[in-house]
Specification:
The chain is α+β, with helices and mostly antiparallel strands. It folds into 2 domains: 2-106, no CATH class; 108-251, no CATH class. 51% of the residues lie in helices and 18% in strands. It has 9 helices and 8 strands. It has helices spanning 2-38, 43-47, 49-71, 78-106, 128-132, 159-167, 186-192, 196-202, 207-215, and strands at 108-114, 117-122, 148-152, 179-181, 194-195, 224-231, 234-241, 246-251. Strands 1, 2, 3, 4, 5, 6, 7 and 8 form an 8-stranded mixed beta sheet that branches. α1 (2-38) packs antiparallel against α3 (49-71) and α1 (2-38) packs parallel to α4 (78-106). It is elongated. The N and C termini lie far apart (71 Å).
Length: 256
């Protein structure tokens, strides 16, 4: 009896281990899509995709194999085992698909230079109505390969309407009809970008963080400027290469 019991437990642990490895493989595929494509560094930290992914996948990795430990029994018929595992697989895949879908809605799709700052725009923030109003075809679809860098240009005839809609929460950086190629706004970016010393003088405690971040950019320090980077959770600081006018990095520091 004891021998049979040990064999049964060994089989259960083998089944649990196999279940865990299969779940881990699926989680790794999802992680590659999310963190290498949708949320390239540092947006997963900036916007918070990591926490939701860990929650969803962590539950799948723990609960799925634990269920396997409970339901596996070599004395069950093959049909019964298949049925049990199909049910578990449907529940696990459903949970993972739901989590990935939620993350898809919070992925950054545009980094828009708006007046004097970079606005990090997520898929969920842009409405179908605004997408339908786009006239430039390159901005009519939300990116699935990471955020696109754009500028904003509001025609004089639409500025009053844009102002009223902005006051109601539909700001210009949420309206792709106003998007233009970033290259057309490089001169304005360079004009708005500020010296690093403006932050470090006003916030002396930020100096080590700023210096460490700039050291990782592999550019001469005298070429680096900054503008605010606004996102759904607050502000970071975006570094600008003053020669090219392009953003070259971000640091988790509220410049205000």
């Amino acid at each position: 009896m004891n021998s049979l019991g040990k064999i049964a437990w060994r089989e259960k642990f083998v089944a649990t281990g196999v279940h865990f490895l299969v779940t881990l493989t699926l989680a790794a595929c999802a992680a590659a899509l999310i963190f290498l494509v949708w949320f390239p560094d540092p947006f997963q930290t900036m916007i918070g995709g990591t926490e939701l992914f860990v929650l969803v996948v962590g539950c799948d990795l723990v609960l799925g194999p634990l269920v396997s430990l409970v339901i596996y029994n070599s004395r069950k018929s093959r049909r019964k085992l298949i049925f049990d595992y199909v049910v578990v697989a449907i529940l696990q895949i459903g949970a993972m698909v739901y989590g990935v879908q939620v993350l898809a809605g919070s992925r950054p799709v545009f980094v828009a230079f708006s007046v004097d700052r970079m606005e990090i725009v997520t898929a969920r923030e842009i409405t179908e109505q605004e997408l339908a109003a786009v006239t430039r075809p390159e901005f009519a679809k939300l990116s699935i390969t990471g955020p696109r860098l754009v500028g904003i240009d509001v025609p004089p005839a639409e500025r009053t309407d844009a102002l009223f809609k902005a006051m109601n929460g539909n700001d210009i950086y949420l309206r792709p009809k106003f998007f233009v190629p970033f290259e057309t706004k490089v001169a304005e970016v360079r004009k708005r970008a500020k010296l690093i010393s403006e932050i470090t003088t006003r916030k002396p405690d930020s100096k080590p963080v700023i210096e460490a971040a700039i050291a990782g950019l592999k550019l001469p320090a005298d070429r680096i400027r900054w503008v605010p980077a606004h996102h759904s959770k607050g502000f970071w600081t975006a570094f600008i290469d003053i020669d090219s006018g392009m953003p070259v990095g971000y640091v988790d520091l509220d410049p205000y």
